[in-house]
Amino acid sequence: MSRRRHAEDSDGGGQPHKRRRKSEQAIADDLESLICKVGDKSTKSLETNLEDLAGVLEADLPNYKSKILRMLCAVSRTLPEKLTIYTTLVGLLNARNYNFGGDRKS
What we know:
Blueprint: H1 6-10, H2 24-37, H3 46-78, H4 83-96, H5 98-102
Helix pairs in contact: 2-3, 3-4
C-alpha cells in the first residue's frame, strides 16, 4: 500500500501544489489598487467599503506604513474628488491605531 498523497499521484509524482507568497511589490500594488478604487460604484455601501479597507490597511501597517502613507498622500492630490473619502479613511485608521495619524502631518 502506497502512502503517497493523492496530489503526487495526479501530478505524475511532482511537487504538491503550495500557496505562493506574494512579493512585496505585488502587495503594494494590491494596496494601491484598493485605495484608488474605494468610493467607486459597488454593491456594498461606502461605509462598509471604508471599514473593510481600514481593516486591510490596519493589518498591513506594520510592514507597509510608509508606502500606505505615500499612497494616501498621492491619491489625495491626484483624485481630489475623493478627498473626503480619503480623510475619512485616515480618520478610521487613526481611530484604530492612535499612532498612525501622529507620525505624519500632510
